[in-house]
Design a protein that fits this description.
- The protein is an alpha/beta fold.
- The protein has 13 helices and 15 strands.
- It has a 9-stranded mixed beta sheet. A 6-stranded parallel beta sheet has the order 3-2-1-4-5-6, sandwiched between helices.
- Helix 4 packs parallel to helix 5 and helix 6 packs parallel to helix 8.
- The longest helix is centred in the last third of the chain and has 19 residues.
Length: 383
Amino acid sequence: MTISIGIVGCGSFAQSFIPLFQHHPLVHRLALCDINSSRLADNARKYQVQETYADFETICRSDLDALVIMTQPWLHAPQAIQALDSGKCVYSAVPVISLPSGDEMLQWCDRLIEAVCRSGRHYMMGETSYYRCEAMYGRRMAAQGAFGHFVHAQGSYLHDVDSPCSLREVCMRRHGDEWNLSLSGNTPMHYPTHSTGGLRSVMNAHVTKISALGHIIPGDDWHRPDTVHRNPFGNEVALCRMSNGATAEIREFRKVGHIGFENFSIYGTEASLVSVPPEDSAALWTTRSSITPLTSEDMRDVLPEDVMAAFNQAMPHNPYGGHGGSHAFMVHEFVEAVQQDRLPAIHAWAAVRYLAPGIMAHKSAMRDGELLDVPDWGDPPQR
């Protein structure tokens, strides 16, 4: 049995995913949806897709099996819930949602879990750090007990607001002609999935307590208390207590002279896995007596032969896709989970565990580092 999928949002980010979903051996039908009629027509022509939808409500009424949500972050949770309630399985780009209010984001986490339980449909968040090569390798080594007891982890997401992937431009697209500096100031810790996802997945543990501090950059025209986000911090750093007893440090930087990366390192009593910048290149597996350099090919999981052949056909110059070669694995995981009617690896309960620590970290930073409990929705119920 194969499945049908609709991709919602045909912007620049979707370009890395449309060919992979379209060519996956378990997908027999692909549809596209975008409110921008010219963009929708251009993509339908580019990818030779016959089935298109001009708005989200219409595609939710279709008989497609699943929807892939590639819209802006503030739309993710509302659209995911609407799709789930319409009987569709859902793949959502990260994060669950991004809004100025942390309390409102936590409310959307509640609503997402309720919608998954109510609908009986599957939800998966497309968190890239879960399928980076070092995360795959780390999970394999953790399953063997090679780390010993986990001691500490570090996770980082460095993305300057004026980098080539400009956060200023995202804000302008959101507000159009109404955009001005008073609407800027995205909160770094409200987008924490890239810094928390890899280390959380390898340790199979979640954050229980968190303390954070923020950095106010002199003359910052983007992060200011008079913006809609009321956030003065361009960079935020948090120290966490994990559910397995280990500690972790997460860094979210939006004002930094760096080309940008997302990575993590994990330290155990018997061995450690250390990422080596620049991203996508290598890592080190080290014990007390040895250091083993690892390449991406050393660490990467193996996709099924027919899937790899299809992705090579779809994207011959880069079949694994971007973000450390994670795209191909995220697509395959979602398609296979829907086709097999099983829980995806990054299900709703995992997704909110990636997001909630960042929300509480920013609350802590606004309170000068106060140690706060992180809300938790538990594990998914047994089906």
